[in-house]
Amino acid sequence: xxxxxxxxxxxxxxxxxxxxxxxxxxxxxxxxxxxxxxxxxxxxxxxxxxxxxxxxxxxxxxxxxxxxxxxxxxxxxxxxxxxxxxxxxxxxxxxxxxxxxxxxxxxxxxxxxxxxxxxxxxxxxxxxxxxxxxxxxxxxxxxxxxxxxxxxxxxxxxxxxxxxxxxxxxxxxxxxxxxxxxxxxxxxxxxxxxxxxxxxxxxxxxxxxxxxxxxxxxxx
Length: 220
Description:
By secondary structure, the chain is mainly β. The protein has one domain (about 1-220). The protein has helices at about 40-45, 110-120, and strands spanning about 15, 35, 60, 60-70, 70-80, 85-90, 95-105, 130, 135-140, 150-160, 165-180, 185-200, 200-210, 215-220. It has an eight-stranded antiparallel barrel. The protein is globular and about 45 Å long. It starts with 12 loop residues before the first strand and ends with a strand.
């Protein structure tokens, strides 16, 4: 799956909890459910991280589903505070868990400027970029890969309300970057996404996240 493999990782465990969709939602997560993160590592090493996951139980007002093809899916559970929990699955089996916090949203002045960002900006495809005072490296490609590659394109369907129903959809033009958190022997990820909701609605988001396990989550 190329760069999307960087969104996976971790041990496989079965998805659970039937949901009113064409697929099951993992880990019993649901719209209007709640999740809390173990934030001990942030409190113990605050200078090591670029962001901190939100404290306390977070409500889940929105769920996003991304069909990557070949039985691979991304499930995004958007939180009350600016962030989301992402579960990657393959044929219904969990392959990875990540949590992201939105750090910045950029609103291009026109559709033409938005398209220029997608096609020309270094943050969507350069092998190395600087952002938020850190240096980040493109998650996929070997040392011989091109200095800049096109962004990866995928569609997301958003669900809200109770009972859940489809509420919106958008197209992502995205690139994933990473950096080593040497103090903790961990990695931090930067996801840059140009989000296209339609002819007159678009933005660019920067979200920073990290890998988690089920032990880091309290789901209610």
